[in-house]
Structure formats: C-alpha cells, structure tokens
Amino acid sequence: MPTIATRSIFVDEEGVAWIAGTGIKVKEVVIEKLVWGLTPEEMQAAHPHWTLPHIYAALSYYYDHQAEMDEQMEQDRQEIAALRAQESNPLTRTELLKRLRQA
C-alpha cells in the first residue's frame, strides 16, 4: 500500500500555526486541551466544524513544537495583561449589563 503524506498544518509569515483549509489556529485547539481538559472527541462535539483528524493534527503539531508554542502563548498572555493594565477605566460586567438594559 502506498504511503500518502498529508499537510494538515501550516505556519504563516508571523510564525502562527494554522490547521490548513480552516480558520483555526493550532493554539485554539491546544487551549481547549490545556485549559478545559477536553478530549479530542469533546472538542469535536463542542465545535462540530472541527474534524477529529484536524484536532489530532493540531495536538500532534503542538507536542512536536511544545516549547516554542508555550512561549508564543505566554507572550500572548503577557501582551493581553499589558493591554488590560493600560486601560484606565475597564468596563465591568455590572456596567455592561447596565448599559445593555438602557439600550
């Protein structure tokens, strides 16, 4: 039986890994796994447009490039924290609900 190679993951010019043919970043799948502890099957049930082969490809890519991806995700976290710290008057949930009721 011939071996067929597939290319499920690509890395863009900014170094971000994506699942080919989708708008899904590999780190989105990884976050579902690490933060929520979801299995690939649970991820697929929560996101029906994600296929199991794509999920497994993303996780495989992550484990092959774990140190680099962990560093990217930490940089993202730090950037978000810095942006939040710059906001002098953050909108709270209470304030948001109040504004929505007034609209």
Molecular structure report:
- Helix 1 packs across helix 3.
- The protein has one domain.
- It has helices at 26-36, 40-46, 52-64, 66-86, 93-102; strands at 9-11, 17-19.
- It is mainly alpha-helical and 103 residues long.
- The radius of gyration is 18 Å and the shape is extended.
- A two-stranded antiparallel ribbon has the order 1-2.
- The longest helix has 21 residues, at 66-86.
- It starts with 8 loop residues before the first strand and ends with a helix.
Instruction: Report the biggest beta sheet as strand number plus sense, adding barrel if it closes.
Output: 2 strands, antiparallel
Distance between the termini: 64 Å
What characteristic shape results from the CA principal axes? extended
Helix content: 55-70%
Across the major sheet, the strand order is 1-2
Give the uncertain stretches in residue-range form. none
Q: Whole-number radius of gyration?
A: 18 Å
Number of domains: 1
- Secondary structural class: mainly alpha
- How many helical stretches? 5
* Average residue pLDDT: 89
Order of helices and strands: EEHHHHH
Strand content: 5-15%
Counting DSSP E segments of at least 2 residues, the number of strands comes to: 2
Characterize this entry briefly.
The protein is mainly alpha-helical. The chain has helices at residues 26-36, 40-46, 52-64, 66-86, 93-102, and strands at 9-11, 17-19.
Topology summary:
Blueprint lengths: L8 E3 L5 E3 L6 H11 L3 H7 L5 H13 L1 H21 L6 H10 L1
Antiparallel strand pairs: 1-2
Helix pairs in contact: 1-3
